Amino acid sequence: MRVNATLCGWLGYSADELVGKRKVQDLLSMGGKIFHQTHWAPLLQMQGSVSEVRLELIHKDGSRVPMIMNAVRRERAGAVVHDLAAFVARDRDKFEQELVASRKRLEAAIEEATGLQEEAKDRALFAEQMMAIVSHDLRTPLATILMSAQVLGRRAPSADQLRVLERISRAASRANRMVSDLLDFTRARLGKGLAVERRRLNPHSAVADSVEELTSACPGRDLQHVREGSGHGLFDVDRLAQLVVNLVTNAVAYGDASRPVIVTSTARADSFSVSVLNFGTPIPAEAMPSLFEPMVRGHGHSNGGRSVGLGLYIVSEIAKAHGGSVEVSSDEVSGTQFTAHFPG
Ligand SMILES: Nc1ncnc2c1ncn2[C@@H]1O[C@H](COP(=O)(O)OP(=O)(O)OP(=O)(O)O)[C@@H](O)[C@H]1O
Ligand SMILES: [Mg+2]
Questions:
Q1: In a domain, 194, yes or no
Q2: Which amino acid residue places its CA nearest to atom 3 of ligand 1?
Q3: How far is CA 141 from CA 130, 134, 167, in A?
Q4: Which of 189, 224, 243 is where one domain is finished?
């Protein structure tokens, strides 16, 4: 009945060639004609409108013009008419093709990233396994060094020789501790978690034993043990000792040497806790969130490259393996205190 110049321009016809001569469906491709019959016409009949239908109209020269069509059925002066709005969808086509292409690119990138991630995981696992093997195998030669130094120490050495022997023992023990930290780290990381063997014991005396050992290992330092409450706890005594050693070693290394280090064991009916308090420069607030992560160590303290940054990670793994947790508070006045809580 009517057609505007834009649609005429798109389809290559003049208005005279269309008005009164062709129906809309005559301009549709074969697929469009079928769609018109099966969907378009019934929908217009039933709901009065059709919107955003993608169809191809045929240009006068036979080429296909992709279109988005909308139609409304109206009554005008007693007669039913259909108003159609058509938009060329070439741009939209291009847009959709680009969407598809970038989706493909994205998928390829994801695939590549996943591959790289797998590779990195493999490599990390390999490195951790190697670390596990190396640290495990280092223990035997270290034990030999320690034992040999002890044997020599029993053969009436001179004062000079004794000093050298002590240095050997100290260095070997230090290496031993680093190695067992590494081993625990790899055990915790390689999925098995830290193994603990819990027994019902008195936590005060277990802590007292560690404090006594540490006192002789840290000459000149004021190391105090405070006991609160009484009772028994279920724990792995070696792991508890390891936890205390790690916390006290830190307190001695990073705390003010002129002030005491105070170890407090607290026993309650259904739980117990161990805390280690030292004074000195507090731990900076920004270091707090990652303090218990492996390989994290503070800056600005030189300790002869001894520190690995595993101590606190192992402390928290030991607490976790017991179903417990570790917390820390640190400020200039009340000092730095690490507390490990254990369920009873
Ligand atoms: N009592 C403390 N006072 C101040 N800073 C501490 C204290 N304990 C730990 N830190 C800080 O937290 C860091 C991490 O401690 P962690 O015990 O995990 O590692 P490390 O002592 O550096 O090395 P490792 O214990 O493996 O030999 C330390 O490097 C130190 O900067
Ligand atoms: Mg440490």
A1: no
A2: 254
A3: 17, 11, 17
A4: 189
Range of the domain at 150: 94-189
Ligand 2 centroid vs 344 CA: distance in angstroms?
27
Same domain, 318 and 206: yes
Q: Are residues 78 and 113 in the same domain?
A: no
* Test site for ligand 1: of 181, 247, 250, 334, most ligand atoms within 8 A of the Cβ: 250
Q: In the structure encoding, which two tokens stand for residue 308, read together?
A: 């690995």
Contact (CB, 8 A) for 114 and 121: no
* Local structure of residue 83 (DSSP, 8 states): E
CATH classification of the domain holding 253: 3.30.565.10
Q: Are residues 179 and 297 in the same domain?
A: no
Number of domains forming the structure of the chain: 3
Domain boundary among 32, 55, 88: 88
Do 13 and 133 lie in one domain? The reply is no
Residue 49 inside a domain? The answer is yes
Ligand nearest to the CA of 252: 1
Separation between Cα atoms, residue 286 and residue 262, nearest integer Å: 25
Report yes or no on 84 lying in a domain: yes
| Closest atom of ligand 1 relative to the 251 alpha carbon | 1
Q: Within 13 Å and on the Cβ side, how many CA atoms surround 113? A: 6
| pLDDT tens, the chain, 344 aa long | 999 999 999 999 999 999 999 999 999 999 999 999 999 999 999 999 999 998 999 999 999 999 999 999 998 888 999 999 999 887 777 888 899 999 999 999 999 999 999 998 888 877 777 777 777 778 878 888 988 998 999 998 999 999 999 999 988 988 888 888 888 887 777 766 788 889 999 999 999 999 998 888 788 899 999 999 998 999 999 899 989 999 999 999 999 999 999 999 999 988 999 999 999 999 999 999 989 988 766 665 544 445 667 889 889 999 999 999 999 999 999 999 999 999 97
Instruction: List pocket residues of ligand 1, CB cut-off 6 Å.
Output: 181, 250-251, 254-255, 278, 283, 291, 296-298, 307-313, 336
The predicted model scores a pTM of 0.60
Distance between Cα 149 and ligand 1 center (Å)? 29
Report DSSP letters for 154-209, one per residue: TS---HHHHHHHHHHHHHHHHHHHHHHHHHHHHHHHTTS------EEE-HHHHHHH
Q: Does some domain include residue 301?
A: yes
